[in-house]
Amino acid sequence: MANDESSQPAMNEAVGQQLQKAREAAGLSVSEVAGAQHLRPSVIQAIESGDYSQIDSELFLKGYVRTYAKQVGLNADSVIADLDRELEPIRQQREQEYEANPLVDIERRRRRKRQVARTLFFLVILGVAGYLAFAFLMPGQDSGEAQSEAPGVTEAPQEQKEPAPETTEPAATSVPDASEAVELSSVPEPDAEPDTLAPLATENPAGGDAVSEPVAEQIPTVVETPEPALQNVSGLATSSDMARLQIQFTGNCWVQVRDANGNQLVSSLQRAGDSIDVSGEAPLKVVIGAVDAVGTIRFQGEPVELGSYRAVNNRSEFTLTI
Q: Which InterPro entries match (predicted)?
């Protein structure tokens, strides 16, 4: 028990003093202890005096102290525990010196700036990705809206042009009146034929066949003569009233063209590179769904300037006359 008590020094003694007393009790010199660890004697003296600043690092210091304690017969673990308690104030002092170093503050600011720049970079990437997604998705929605608006645009001209067929019906009914008048005028002619048939009967006693032949020949001539009158009375469009419209497209565009009678010449979605060539009775009513998607417009072979017509939301509606 006495040997154990002598081998374990008091806990309040410094580690260097504990090692020095144990070395002297074992009858060893500083040089012998240093030679056993392959160290300089000055390192052993620094450990015994508590001048730990001469040791390169805390890791090496603990290694030297552990070996020294085993060499002089002390409990290495308890000595290392005492050494940790002694080094705690030194650690705190080094931490304060490190924090007070201006270079450390500069490095800390640089690290903070790098974090802010990295965050901004990721935000910019997200913003660009969102813009590209919005730019690619919007054209599809615009074309869908143009197609949904197309039926509403086609209904308006139909409502405006509904009276037109009613005006043409009386013209159509008037044609039979003219033909009936011509036929009625031709009916009395057989009454006048007896005067002309009498001489024929004297020339040909069997005049029944001879009389019927001239009558059959005269009837077609009477029916054919009203045909020019029918063409004039009908009031149909002549070649001089026909208009030709040519459009070339550079992008997706909905287009509708109607003639003077309300006939729909074209109503469809055209794509880049497409073109239309339609003809109808002038004036022609044109609806362009995307003005910037139209390359060229030619009416009656002459170019048409779209800038002279009013456009709302890239949509223009105008009338072309000869």
A: Bact_Cytoskel_RodZ, Cro/C1-type_HTH, Lambda_DNA-bd_dom_sf, RodZ-like_C
Q: Please say whether the dihedral angle defined by the alpha carbons of residues 113, 118, 122 and 125, taken in this order, is positive or negative.
A: positive
Q: Convert the pLDDT of each residue in 120-135 to its tens digit.
A: 999 999 999 999 988 8
Residues in CB range of 264: below 8 A, 6 or more apart:
154, 256, 257, 258
Here the tokens at position 31 are 């040089």
Q: Strand ranges (DSSP E) for the chain?
A: 242-249, 253-258, 264-270, 275-281, 284-288, 294-299, 302-303, 311-312, 315-320
Cβ neighbour number for residue 262 with a 10 Å cutoff: 16
3-state SS, residue 177: helix
Half-sphere exposure of 93 (CA within 13 A, CB side): 6
Q: Cα torsion for 140, 142, 145, 151, to the nearest 10°?
A: -100
pLDDT in tens, 300-313: 999 998 888 989 98
Q: What dotted CATH number matches 2-99? A: 1.10.260.40
What are the sequence ranges of the domains in the chain?
Answer: 2-99, 149-164+238-320, 165-234
Burial zone of 244 (CB within 10 Å; 0-12 exposed, 13-18 middle, 19+ buried): middle
Decide the pairing of beta strands 275-281 and 242-249: antiparallel
Give the three-class secondary structure for 28.
Answer: coil
pTM over 0.70: no
